Amino acid sequence: MEGILPLLKPKGLTSHDCVFKLRKILKMKRIGHTGTLDPDVTGVLPICLGRATKVAEYITDAGKSYEGEVTIGFSTTTEDASGDIVEKIKVKESFSREKILAVLKTLTGEITQTPPMYSAVKVNGKRLYEYARQGIEIERPSRSVMIYSIELLDERTTFTGDPIRFRFRVSCSKGTYIRTLAVMIGDELGLPAHMSELVRIQSASFAISDCLSLEDIEREVETGTLSEKIYPLETALSHLPKYRINDTVAKKVKNGAVLNIPEQLKDTKGPIVLETGEGMALAIYEHHPQKQGVMKPAKVLRNESQEEGSK
């Protein structure tokens, strides 16, 4: 069994918890997830099975989309609803729709974020949440992330209340903390804030409508129909540039040969998928760091020894 199984991650489980459960359900060990989702977050979590674990990082590196709710009026230790209240201010003012939209526009494009203390980022060999659980706050390295779009999912013309809540949809790059984005929205409004709800609705080419719950997967295993729900590993690479090769070159690719970069891909900076005429991905290549005009394999997905062993 190999390919991508888009999981509808439930609330209360970590990404690792989901992998642990799926290993038991599917009775296989070679399973990997494609990026950590906090326990409180639900939604799209593509799971890689078998040989597809080789392409997990390319799903992780692709863009993501979320729908969430920001609560203006109090902040928490974890920047989401599960944390303890840090600061609470009675919200007396109201905000116009134009003001909220202006704030969202300010936070669109390349922005700088500081990872929250309750996160899996490592500093000095230790994850930040380990420091946080010990009551230690340390300096964290800031990072640049890209917010492609933020859409206000609320039709109100005036936002009032104590606290004020509204929903939004965001498309962003790898490494974006939506919790921190909610806090930044509050900062722009001059009030403490946190992310009160979050669902990931898209990860790379996988949408929430593609996903199965853990219960769905158990039922599909029982009926023997799960293989119909698993996407080929090529689906995980659909956002990357492709280069089709003939059988002669394919044999070299399977053996990890260094190749000249095709003229039409010389301006491509990221990974390149080399595929057969039938669209089967054989390897992922990248520009050689030392040799101009040459590319080398980053991942060989199908090699000669594997194919001989499968006959």
From TrEMBL:
Q: Name one GO biological process term.
A: mRNA pseudouridine synthesis
Say if the entry is tagged with keyword Isomerase: yes
Q: Name one GO molecular function term.
A: RNA binding
Q: Which PANTHER family would you find in this protein's record?
A: PSEUDOURIDYLATE SYNTHASE TRUB1, TRNA-PSEUDOURIDINE SYNTHASE
EC numbers, comma separated: 5.4.99.25
List, for all copies, the residue spans of the domain called Pseudouridine synthase II N-terminal: 23-178
Q: Which UniProt keywords apply?
A: Isomerase, tRNA processing
For this protein, what reaction is catalysed? Answer: uridine(55) in tRNA = pseudouridine(55) in tRNA
Name the record gives this protein: tRNA pseudouridine synthase B
Lineage of the species this protein comes from: Bacteria, Bacillati, Bacillota, Bacilli, Bacillales
Write down the NCBIfam families for this protein, in alphabetical order: TruB
Record flagged with keyword Cell wall biogenesis/degradation: no
